Every structure is written in C-alpha cells, then in structure tokens.
Amino acid sequence: MLGVTRDATEKQIKDAFRALALKYHPDRNKEPSAEERFKEIAAAYAVLSDPQKRKQYDTHGFAGVAGFSDEELFRHVDFGDLFGGLNFDFGGVGFGGGLFDRLFGRQRARPARGANIEVELTVPLERVAEGGEEKLRYARAASCPTCKGSGAKPGTAPRRCDACQGTGRRTRQSSRREREGEVLVRSVSPCDACHGRGEIIEQLCPECHGSGHTEREESLTVNVPVGVEEGMALRIPGHGMPPETHGGVPGDLYVVVHSAPDARFERAGADLWRDEAISVAEAVLGTRRTVPTLEGRIELSIPAATQPDSVLRVGGKGLPQFGGKARGDLYVRVRLKVPERLSAKQRELYEQLLALDAAGRGWQAQSAAVPTIKGSKRGRTQQPT
Fold it and tell me: Looking at residues 113-135, what average pLDDT do you find?
C-alpha cells in the first residue's frame, strides 16, 4: 500500500507515507476516490509503524490485523507530529489530528457520563401559543453531600483497581482459525474486581453506602418555546443521573412536552378542531354561532343547507408553528343535533313538514314516471303503443 520493501526502515516507511498522504489528502485531491485511498494509506502506516502489528502482518497478512478497531489501530500514531513541520493549509484544514478525527471518527477519551433522565411536562394550549416558563418538579439521584460523590467514608479515598489499572475494563485476547488464516480476537468486558468503577472503596460512606449519590427532589424552571410540538423533548444539560464513577459528569434531562386536554379544542399539529352542534332548522336555514378561540370569542356564520359533519375553516386561529411565523387554523366540525323530545306545537309543525316532503316526493315520482306528448294540451296523456 505504501510501496515500500519488506525490510524498509522506520524512516523509509514514514517518508513514503508523507509523500502519499500529500498526494491523496482529501482537501487537496478532489478525485472521488482520494478520501478512500487516503484512509488505506493511513491504515497501512499505522500497521507498519508499530513493531507488534507489523510482525502480525508479516506472519499472517491482512488476517493478522483484521481484528483491530480504528481506536486500537491508530492509538500510537501522532499524525500531528508527522506533519507538524509542514506549512501546508489546504482549504483551512491541516494534517493534524482534526483531519483523522473527521475521517475515522476518533474521539478523545471523555469522562464517564451518568444516564439521561426523561420526564413529562403537560402545559395548557395557551402556553403552547405564547411560550414562557413552566415549573417542573422531579426526583433524581444527585451527588452525595457527605462524600461528595466519591462513595468513600469522609477522611478516606477510593484506591485505583489493580486488576484493570483504573480503566474499569478487562481486555482478553484470543485467536481463531479462519479461511484467511489465524485471526486475533479481542473482547472487552467490565472489570469483575471493581465492577467497572475503575476503583475500589474500602470504607463505604455511611450516607450513600458507597454509591456516591442519594435521591432527592429537584425543582427547576423550563422555558417552553412558542409553538412547541406535541411530544417534543427539551434537553437540559447536566440535570440527569450522576456518573457511576467518581470524577465523571452527570447525564442530561429530557423534558417531553405534552398539551393538556382542553374541553374547547383538540390539537392536530398547529391546527385546532372543535365540534359545534346545531339544530335541524339551523342546518336548513343557516345560523350564526359564537365560538371560542385562544384569543377570545368570535362569531361564526354557518350557511344554509349545511350538511351533517361539514367542516368550516377559520384561518389563522390555531397555534403558532414551531420555529416559524405561520399559524395554524381553527376547524369547526358541524354536528346535527336531533331533538329527543318535542312539544305538541313542535310535533305538529314537524308533521306538517313531513307531509309536505311526502307530497313533494310523490309529485316528483309521478312527473318522472308519466311522459307528456309534445304539442298536447296540459293534462292530456297518450299511452305508448
């Protein structure tokens, strides 16, 4: 891959890599294959510049180094040192660690983090429309005030685990036979001596019994954004669970926002829906209704001959859309309310209406069934032959 001989010296390997890396640097070489070629060159250098990996490669070929992760492969390589003396700047990106972090996803070791917490917050529709602050109370484990999170009795301190050298992990290496040859396999598991803590507490804190944290109720103010969507999670850094090991950082708190039930409306995204019941007479003749909105009541015109379950739209009377200037609409679904009890007068009028309907239907049926003769006098008919 680097074009060097099997007995190449360390300097020859380094010089070959530097020359090829300059040629295929992805911020300098714009060919589609340049980035992949650059990765191959970097991986080859990582193997050949490490005596142990080079020996495994010389003995077993590619199968001898196939079990290494990117982190294990590049752990000993200081790319910043390799290119630190070169005054090149292609597109503002140098040859240091930043480029290799981008290509291989390498990250520096971070302190252990505690688990995240998810809690729910129910807010009224008015808060969704206007935004603002809401109080939230929740219980979580926090750093023990007696031992300051160490888990050890005051006046004592945990000691580093000798079994894992304070890493909290045990690495075991084995080999297995494959078609390509012998393959090295490395397995990583929590240290059974310290249970993954990386340290051993000989005298436990009497308050937290060695856990380093105690449970307590906390209260904080959540800033609800205007138009917050149903089920949206708001992240509050550092208010989650404390870390399992001393010296780590707390997790985050995720507040999942829900709209409170409202007798006036149903929420559908940024739109609001409500049902409005009208009588049969109002559906036939049309009417006006005063309906609520989030800003107050408005008068709604319901036209004549409105059919059951018709939907009337009132533009711009819904909720603000999250992150934008637009606003949803209010939709009014018209429900037909049939009276369950009638007064004598109402019954009389409905019976008259029913008779008129029946007479109208009879006349229409008769008119459709009996043809008229063109040019005949009104009322005279002729049977078809």
Answer: 93
Q: Strand pairing of 271-279 and 330-337?
A: parallel
What confidence tier does 17 reach under pLDDT thresholds 50, 70, 90?
Answer: confident
Q: At 160, give phi and psi (nearest 5°).
A: -65, 140
Phi, psi values for residue 362, rounded to 5°? -65, -45
Structure token pair of residue 242:
């404390």
Q: Are 333 and 342 in contact (CB under 8 A)?
A: no
Task: Name which CATH class applies to 10-104.
Answer: mainly alpha
Q: Where in the chain is the domain with CATH 1.10.287?
A: 10-104
Give CATH superfamily name and number for 266-337.
Urease metallochaperone UreE, N-terminal domain (2.60.260.20)
Residue 284 CB coordination number (10 Å): 13
CB atoms within 10 A of CB 41: 21
pTM of the model: 0.55
Residue 247 — φ and ψ, nearest 5°? 100, -5
Evaluate if residue 372 carries a pLDDT over 60: no
Q: Compute the radius of gyration of the chain from its Cα atoms.
A: 39
| Lowest mean pLDDT segment, chosen from 80-84, 231-235, 306-310, 379-383 | 379-383
Assigned CATH topology for domain 117-158+201-259: HSP40/DNAj peptide-binding domain (2.60.260)
Q: How far apart are CA 17 and CA 45, in angstroms?
A: 6
Between the two ends of the chain, the Cα-to-Cα distance in Å is 102
* Alpha-carbon span 225 to 234, nearest angstrom: 9
DSSP structure string for 260-277: PP-SS-EEETTEEEEEEE
CA 67/CA 63 separation, integer angstroms: 8
Tell me the per-residue pLDDT of 360-369, one tens digit each, with 9 for 90 and over.
Answer: 777 666 665 5
